[in-house]
Amino acid sequence: MANIKSSIKRAKLIAGRTARNRSIKSSVRTAVKRFETALAKDPGAAGDTLRKASGALDKAVSKGVIHRNAADRKKSRLARKLNTKSSQ
Question: Measured between alpha carbons, how far is 10 from 51 in angstroms, rounded to an integer?
Answer without folding.
Answer: 37
